[in-house]
Amino acid sequence: MASKTDFIIVPGAWHGPEAFDPTSALLEKAGYTIHGVSLPCFGASPPLKNFDPDVQVIRDTVNKVLSSGKDAVLIYHSYGSVPGSEALSEYVKKLESGNQKEGWGKIRRLVFCCAFVLPEEGSLMAALQFNDLPWFIVNGDEVLPNTPEKIFYNDLSDEVAAPYIAAIKPHSYRTFSSQQSVAPWKVIPSTYIVCEKDQAIPLPVQEGMLAMAHQLAPTSFDVIERCSASHSPFISQPEWLAKMLIKAAGGAA
Fold this sequence. Notes:
The protein has helices at 21-29, 52-67, 81-86, 89-97, 124-127, 148-151, 158-166, 203-216, 233-236, 238-248; strands at residues 5-10, 34-36, 71-77, 107-113, 136-139, 142-145, 171-172, 190-195, 223-227. Helix 1 (21-29) packs across helix 10. By secondary structure, the chain is α/β, with parallel strands linked by helices. The protein contains ten helices and nine strands. The longest helix has 16 residues, at 52-67. The protein is globular. A six-stranded parallel sheet has the order 2-1-3-4-8-9, sandwiched between helices. A three-stranded antiparallel sheet has the order 5-6-7, with no helix packed on it. It has a single domain, classed as Alpha/Beta hydrolase fold, catalytic domain (Rossmann fold, 3-Layer(aba) Sandwich), CATH 3.40.50.
C-alpha cells in the first residue's frame, strides 16, 4: 500500500536534489513518493537577486502535494531551510488561525538536516555575522565552495566524492541576504539531524542554533538525532538517514 505521506527534499546551496539519490532510493523502496526540488539558485545565470524564486518553487511543490490530499515531510539541507521556511508563510498563518483548507493534507514534520535554524527576520548572512566563511569563493553575485571534499564530503573516499564535486554549480550569493518572515519550526513539529563531523556548519554552530530555538520556543525540535556524518549524511549514511526520515513520517524506524 502506498504511503499517505510524501517526502519533499529541499537541497542546500551548490547542490541539486540528485545528491540525495542514495537516500531517496531507499525511501522509494520503502513505498514513499519523493519530490526533489530543483532550486532556481542552482547554477542560475544570471544569478538570482534574492531567494524569492527558490521560495516560490518550494511553495508550489508543497501545495501540489497537500492539495492532492497527501501529507508531507519536508527535508531541509543547509541553505535549503531558509527559502524552505519562507515557503511555509501562508501555511503557518492558516495553521495558527485553524483555517486549513478542507481536503488538503498537512505537513507532518520538518526535518532540518545540518540546516540553518533562523528566527523571524533572520538571514543566513546575519547568522554568519555578515562575514563570508573562509571557504567561500565569491565572484560578483556568484559564490562557490573551496575544498568541497573537506567541507561537504570529509567522510567519503575521493572516488565516491568525485562525481558529487563535479556536479557542484555556482550559487546566487545575494540569496544569503534574504530574510525569513516566519519561523515554522516554532509551530510545526520538527526534527534536527546533528552531523558531528560537519565542516560547513560545525557542531558548535548546530548546537547553538538549537539552543536559540529552544529558548524562543521551548517545545520546538522535540526530536534531535545525532550521527557521525559530514555535511552530507544522505550520501555517506543513507541507511541511517532513511530510517530517521521514515520515523519522522510516522513509520517504523
